[in-house]
Amino acid sequence: MLQLNIVNALCLQILFSSIASAGPLDTAPKYQALPPLREQAVIQDALRDQRVSNIPHILQKYGVDAWLMSQKEYAEDTVFWSLKSATQFSARRRTVQLFLANATAGVKSAYTWIDNTPKVWSDILEVLEEQNPASIALNIDTDISFSSGLHAGEYETIIGELGEKWSKKVVSEPMVAVEYIGTMVKERLPWYRKLQETAWAIISEGFSEKVITPGKTTTEDVEWWMREKIQQLNYTTWFMPSVNILDDKDIFGSGTEIKSGAIQYGDVLHVDFGVTALGLNTDTQHLAYVLHPGETESDIPQGLLNGLKTANRLQDIVKSNMKIGSSGNTILKNALKQMHSEGIEGKIYSHPIGDWGHSAGTLIGMSNQQDEVPVLGDLPLLDNTYYSVELYATHFVPERNATMYFYLEEDIYWVDEGKRWDWVYGQQKKFHLVRPQGAKAGELFRVQSP
Ligand SMILES: *[C@@H]1O[C@H](CO)[C@@H](O)[C@H](O)[C@H]1NC(C)=O
Ligand SMILES: *[C@@H]1O[C@H](CO)[C@@H](O)[C@H](O)[C@H]1NC(C)=O
Ligand SMILES: *[C@@H]1O[C@H](CO)[C@@H](O)[C@H](O)[C@H]1NC(C)=O
């Protein structure tokens, strides 16, 4: 509570001193309070309705006439979580959803039944007989989780209840669920940006002398501080924050021993961190440097600054290679080629984000798959979606006589007007700094240039 007040006071100062150059990236990231739950529900449901109204277009795009989902309480289809209202906490009884691509005039294109009697099936058959779809998509893909959420028992029930006439029309079209879950409507962005700013604010405070006392505070202490902070702000998360002290080992590599214990002066810190709220998830990796007593920002070793700059360049390379319609594997190949041609060494493992931390859409590499990602890397890149540009560049740091790993991750969104990708909140271009205790509070924040 005290810390929050101090931050608010500082933010006010900064707000006043930077009004002339206003713009979100000229000021320190601030904690963004969430509206009361009742208002959150109104916001979420309005966004959900907008997304649902797009389903007929998605079905038409993939040439499917109907999309049928069925689930029982606690055995939900993956798509259920992107279809439900804010006040639904699970499926109830048997919850069945049916969508039509080409409903005839005066007929609804979206149906929901919550029932445990045979009436649900006779109702569905009535709609099918009347609308006569040539194909009925079920979420029965073998590889893509978002498109394979129909439980095995429920599949048998559907086939039995539809009878031979309609079960012959059953098809699998995985892109229907992928595009529904992956498509972000415009009105979601201002909220996503607020979530992202909050994530940056938590990292900024966690990676500062307010939380870290060199020689005492451990990486685990910072991880739990972040968990508590998320809770205090009434957000949640989708994974345990992870804080590491970087050296010349790949923290994502298998079998490597990661340095832990108390954080020391001169350490390079790394965090992998995300928050969840309003049905959205963020994913960020940032770096920090722990200044020695008496040091200022100008004392950060040049080799570390160059490493961060190299990783920034790789972020830009990935972003500029993300052509809509290309497969993740093609984007990976092109981005790696450009990376090597610019003399950079690193790995790319970027993923869609939104309804899920690792959401629906094509994958651009995985940390263990740099040639291609089978199936998931073959999907086409969709527009109007969010991605997490996740990667590392290695760089030789003469001051350490070591090649170090510079891990960064930042979320981007598709700017439909400009036909390009942009950072949701910003790109980390300067290290977070843990200053020696007693440094002036005004020095706490650093300008992050866009
Ligand atoms: C729906 O109707 C349009 C216009 O008649 C037609 O082109 C299309 O093939 C139909 N089916 C689907 C799945 O879009
Ligand atoms: C979190 O929620 C509680 C209960 O509604 C509220 O009193 C508090 O102000 C909220 N905190 C923040 C930081 O929004
Ligand atoms: C730098 O590291 C290399 C390889 O680990 C080692 O051979 C060399 O002696 C080191 N140089 C210095 C100045 O410590």
Structure characterization notes:
Residues 1-22 form the signal peptide. Keywords: Signal. InterPro entries: Creatinase/aminopeptidase-like. A five-stranded mixed beta sheet has the order 3-2-1-4-5, with helices on both faces. Strands 11, 12, 13, 14 and 15 form a five-stranded antiparallel beta sheet that branches. Strands 6-7-10-16 form a four-stranded mixed beta sheet. Strand 14 (402-415) and strand 15 (420-423) form a beta hairpin. The chain folds into two domains: 56-182, Creatine Amidinohydrolase, Chain A, domain 1 (3-Layer(aba) Sandwich), CATH 3.40.350; 185-434, Creatinase/methionine aminopeptidase superfamily (Creatine Amidinohydrolase, Alpha-Beta Complex), CATH 3.90.230.10. The protein has helices at residues 2-17, 37-52, 55-61, 80-83, 119-131, 152-167, 174-182, 189-206, 219-232, 302-321, 328-341, and strands at residues 66-72, 94-100, 110-115, 136-137, 170-171, 242-245, 268-273, 276-277, 280-281, 284-290, 345-348, 351-353, 386-397, 402-415, 420-423, 432-434. Helices cover 33% and strands 19% of the residues. It is α+β, with helices and mostly antiparallel strands. The relative contact order is 0.12. It is elongated, with a radius of gyration of 24 Å. The chain is built from eleven helices and 16 strands. One 2-acetamido-2-deoxy-beta-D-glucopyranose is lined by residues 33, 233-234.
